[in-house]
Every structure is written in structure tokens, then in C-alpha cells.
Amino acid sequence: MALTAIGLLCFAALLSFPALGERDHSGEQGPVLVKVDVTNKLTNTIVSYSATVPKGMPMFGVLNKLQDTKSFNFTYSISKSYGIYLESVNGLAGSNANHTYWELLSKKGKSIRSLDVGIGCYQPKSNEIFIMNFTRWD
Fold it and tell me: What are the UniProt keywords, alphabetically (predicted)?
């Protein structure tokens, strides 16, 4: 039931942002190697992971696959309004009191951009690094 609701939220989000729902016309088929960097801006640490997943799998599915390896873990909550919210990675959670959170970024080549959608809707691409950056807001 919860996954159906999440799927509907993602579909509704894609209707609002047509470019996000466009197909990748690169001709790429089959599995995609997804690279994930978990960075901590406060301690300047980076831990890298990778997984081969079906093309089009949302990041939530990728993170679940990584969690099956036992070397990675994450927690999340589900908002009725906004979908899946990333709470912690490898035991480190954001905090309102400390003004910390997990920033979601995409790196392609030398370009790094902030994501407009969360882990429930974002579909990683080939030759991209998905970055979960623990950082602080002012």
C-alpha cells in the first residue's frame, strides 16, 4: 500500500515537471552501474558505494539494494505530502538543533547540481555519481 502511494506521488511529481519524466534517448538498455558517494562536509570524509540495477530504478530502490550488502544503511520516513524523506545514512542523522541535513546532489563530469526531487522519485543515470552530502544550513 505504501509503495503504491509512493508511486503515485512520483507520477504526480513527474506530471508537474515534464522534463523529469522524459525518456533517456541515449539508446542505453539493461542494467545501469550506479555510483554513490556518501560525503560528510563537516568532517571531510567520503565513502563510495556502487550497485548494478535495472535502468529506471528510483534511488530508493538503489539504496535498498546497497543496504542488502550490510556495509551501508539508511533510514527514512514517509511524508503524506512529499513522499520519502531521507533521515540518516550509516547511522548519521540530520538535526534541526544542529542545523544539519542530507543534501542530495548529482555529479556528471565536473558539474555538480542539487536535485529537485528526493530518493523516491530520482532515477540515477549512467556516468553519474549520486552524492548524499551531510552538511549544515545557516
Answer: Signal
Is the CB of residue 9 less than 8 Å from the CB of residue 17?
Answer: no
C-alpha to C-alpha distance for 129 and 105, rounded to whole angstroms: 8
Give which of 128, 109, 124 is closest to 55, Cα–Cα: 124
Domains of the chain: 2-22+30-136 (2.170.130.30)
**Residue appearing with cell numbers 555510483:** 35
- CA pair distance 68, 20, nearest whole angstrom: 28
The percent of residues above 70 in pLDDT, for the chain, comes to: 79
Percent helix, strand, coil in the chain, to 5, is 20, 40, 40
What is the residue type of 129? I
Query: Is the CB of residue 55 less than 8 Å from the CB of residue 33?
Result: no
Tell me how far CA of residue 120 lies from CA of 28, 46, 102, 131, 136, in angstroms.
Answer: 22, 23, 14, 15, 23
Q: What would the grid cell of residue 15 be?
A: 506530471
pLDDT attached to residue 22: 41
Task: Using DSSP, state whether 77 is helix, strand or coil.
Answer: strand
